[in-house]
UniProtKB/TrEMBL annotation, chains A, B:
InterPro entries: Cro/C1-type_HTH, HTH_LacI, Lambda_DNA-bd_dom_sf, Peripla_BP/Lac1_sug-bd_dom, Peripla_BP_I. Residues 3-57 form the HTH lacI-type domain. Pfam families: LacI, Peripla_BP_1. One of its GO terms (molecular function) is DNA-binding transcription factor activity. Keywords: DNA-binding, Transcription, Transcription regulation. It comes from the Bacteria. This is LacI family transcriptional regulator. It comes from Mesobacillus subterraneus. Residues 3-47 form the HTH cro/C1-type domain. Gene3D superfamilies: 3.40.50.2300, lambda repressor-like DNA-binding domains.
DNA sequence: GTGAAAGCGCTAACAT
DNA sequence: ATGTTAGCGCTTTCAC
């Protein structure tokens, strides 16, 4: 196959130990031998075998990332951050896209553990007991990203969804709206669904605005279709609605499209605020006001937590990342 | 650390060779010992060490993927396909996002080669001589995705950009348009820029429509901003334009936004066709007619080519994937 | 049907 | 400053 440390040693008339020292920047050789060895390495085009290294060091400098199928720019941003942090720490990342159903998840976990990744970023999915126990038994550090676990002591990185939804609703209220509806995503989703609904409700209650069943449409997911389908439904059950909080930007885009088709003008007749601040939020017509999450940063922090665990062996605290309202043009002040 | 094959062997009162055989489904053991060993494996929660395996087998069952910063859903779709094929072949994928500048590329290539990935998918970037030579010396199979090399014998998977652009222009022409403009992306881009411009020109020429400088606006990239900036420029130099071919969906989205701001109705006053068929093409207002590439399939095919190389050792032929017009609502027939 | 032992490419004592 | 050697966890002859 390709050259080994032995070849280099032989060619340079030194022992493999010396070559190893030079490669790893340890002490124990003269400048002269170093130059000689480096020259041989160069000539041969020798490339150290990270697999062999990994076997000894018990460190593969690889982390695994588990993602369910999600809006692409969400995943991309999160991944960008993870990769950045990994790269800064001399590691690379193996990505595994799990199906939404979750059966693939266990397989991927197994795979990652067999490959002896140094750690795992588990993103946007509920950490089931089965997963947790498996990972725990394998003693692989794990961090949750854009999700959290109530049952297990696993560090996580996410925004406070309850609070963020509260912020969104409050923003609409502050703009003078009182007839406010929500298209909520999946309310069974304990991590991103329920808390956003609760946050919405709380904001309404705190401003003494009645919020009943008719204010909220529960869609099955967080996608474009859910918005397309959701708007007519919401209007039917709540005709006086003047502003909508969509639980995701994709839902919001669906709302925008559906509104356009029905000849409803946004924001003149209907205000819309989204959630996520995806790339495409600034490309919509009109540009979408939304709740922004620092996605890249979140990915970065998640990976950094992993690296901190490698160093200290201790589990650091979780991180609640700040969200903010990104004001664009889809919400109008109500006279 | 965790358990090794030795632990399993000891616990089961057999040799490690036997355990290995059982693990790898080879012959040479009784059903009884198999059951005994499997039981121990189960109890211990033993997980074979893929790193050690890799060292012996010279096969890591990992492939590397190199991507520049691109539109997220483009990357995601391509990656989805790669991962699917990898998974089907018992492999996982390490993703590396290179900067557009390209300096990081060499580092990533080195990294992947040190990690002894079985093969590399090199996507959407120009394969420089330096890269090629390095990978060639390391004897790592490589395949180009959504790009091609004129200088080196490397298999690739992509659509025919010239032809696809021709198709786009022809579509507009067939819809009765004659005043057709293009916002072209970067014309220095030899892989996706130039060919699309040439294809556009050829279609115009074949239909005897004059196509001069004023028909085309060269933007610096393929992004949303380029469309925003490009439309006013195009209108200024070519006021009678009734239809536009945008060299990417993101450019097209920029055109849509810019048109909206200027009160130009799409498709009533201006028809727009894009290129890529990103997820968001169906979410625009109006939904975007565009040239579709089978992105997921392309990723899949690229990875499959790699696996074929592993098997046969031979370099298979490149694959030109079919493109097609995805008709939505942004182009209007001209009376 | 099963075991002993060599060795994959490297690092890390331990010598010298 | 440099070399020797024992593994890391596994697969694979080669014996029995």
């Amino acid at each position: 196959m390709s050259y080994t440390i032995k070849d280099v040693a032989k060619e340079a008339n030194v022992s493999i130990a010396t070559v190893s020292r030079i490669l790893n920047g340890q002490a124990g050789y003269s400048e002269k031998t170093k130059i000689k060895v480096m020259k041989v390495i160069e000539e041969l085009g020798y490339s150290p075998n990270a697999v062999a290294r990994g076997l000894i060091n018990k460190r593969t400098h690889t982390i695994g990332v588990l993602f369910p199928k999600l809006s692409s720019s969400l995943v991309t941003d999160l991944l960008d951050g993870i990769e950045k942090a990994a790269n800064d720490n001399g590691s690379s990342v193996i990505v595994c896209h799990t199906e939404s159903n979750g059966k693939k998840t266990m397989n991927y976990l197994q795979l990652l553990i067999e490959k002896r990744v140094d750690g795992i970023v588990f993103a946007s999915e509920v950490l089931k007991e089965e997963y947790y126990q498996y990972v725990k038994k394998a003693k692989v550090p794990i961090v949750l990203l854009s999700t959290e676990s109530y049952a297990f002591p696993v560090p996580y990185v996410k925004v406070n969804d309850f609070h963020a939804a509260y912020t969104a609703a409050k923003y609409l209220i502050d703009k003078g709206h009182t007839e406010i509806g929500m298209i909520s995503g999946n309310k069974e989703d304990i991590v991103a669904g329920k808390p956003r609904i609760d946050g919405f409700r709380k904001a309404m209650a705190d401003s003494r605005i009645v919020c009943e069943e008719r204010n909220i449409v529960n869609s099955s997911g967080f996608g474009f279709r859910d918005g397309i389908v959701g708007l007519p439904k919401l209007i039917e059950q709540f005709p006086s609605v003047t502003a909508i909080f969509a639980a995701s930007d994709e839902i919001a885009m669906g709302v925008l499209s559906s509104a356009y088709q029905q000849g409803i003008k946004v924001p003149e007749e209907l205000s819309v605020i989204g959630f996520d601040n995806l790339d495409l939020a600034e490309m919509t017509i009109p540009p979408l006001t939304t709740i922004g999450q620092p996605l890249v940063k979140m990915g970065e922090v998640a990976a950094q937590i992993l690296f901190k665990i490698f160093e200290t062996g201790e589990i650091p605290e979780s991180r609640i990342m700040p969200h903010k309202v990104v004001e664009r043009l889809s919400v109008k002040e109500r006279a």
